[in-house]
């Protein structure tokens, strides 16, 4: 089965296997960011964030939708990172990190592992693996398709503080 080549709409170059990527949501045609769509190179979206404030716009939209949602209620907004109780049926917290442009699906049953973690650890989250680097900043590894996203604005201590503030971690 041939899988079609993904082309980043920002740079118009292929997204190669293993390259970090961001899945951009489809926005209303009148939205100022409607020209962005589909799968983007992570470096491309990060580079235009400075001038177009993409992360801030996505955080505002996501927080607004979540604040009115019964199925995906807002738990916390910290900067451009949104925590939602998105999958009540699966007991998961969804983290939309628009500072680093990735989404983390955090099973409730992994919270104890996070609470007991130290540096240089990896915590399995299902189809993702959360890595705590020696410098105490995080990386998220996606298993399918396989790629890794560094999270230069999300330290382990900030991550834990957000979970405590959202009342999901003691």
What does this entry look like structurally?
The chain is an alpha+beta fold. The chain has one domain. 24% of the residues lie in helices and 34% in strands.
How would the blueprint of this fold be written?
Elements lengths: L20 E4 L13 E4 H11 L1 H14 L6 E5 L2 E7 L4 E6 L4 E6 L3 H5 L5 E4 L3 E5 L4 E7 L2 E10 H10 L5
Antiparallel strand pairs: 1-2, 3-4, 4-5, 5-6, 7-8, 8-9, 9-10
Biggest β-sheet, characterized? 4 strands, antiparallel
Specify the structural class.
alpha+beta
Measured distance between first and last alpha carbons: 47 Å
Order of helices and strands: EEHHEEEEHEEEEH
Amount of beta strand = 25-35%
- Report the principal-axis shape: globular
Q: Tally the helices: what do you get?
A: 4
Average residue pLDDT: 92
Oligomer: single chain
User: Low-confidence spans: pLDDT under 50, at least 5 residues?
Assistant: none
Helical percentage = 10-25%
Radius of gyration, Cα only, in angstroms?
Answer: 16 Å
Topology, number of strands:
10
Identify the strand order in the major beta sheet: 3-4-5-6
How many structural domains are formed by the residues? 1
